Amino acid sequence: MKFESSRPENLLQKKGKNTKKEYDLKKLKKVKRPGWANKDLKVVKTIRFDMDVVNWAVCESEKRGMPYQTFIKSVLKEAMNKGDKNKLHDEIRQIVKEELAKKAS
Question: Does residue 51 have a pLDDT over 90?
Fold first, then answer.
């Protein structure tokens, strides 16, 4: 059973009389992008942290009065800008050792 409106000839009739088959895009005006479009684009990624890392980041961010995601981003950017990969590696190693020592005691 077909409905009346689903027939191809009826669909063609529903298109507006002013609908063109082709448009001349050269006549379009250029529009400046809004100011926010010029800022650095953010990338959405899923990353998994251990609960103790998230709890630490939340506590530290609250002490500084900033959102925890902004705090994590600032910590990562600071480490990235230092450019010393070995130092970051050593810092991570030290944090892991400290956390393991806390759990052992």
Answer: yes
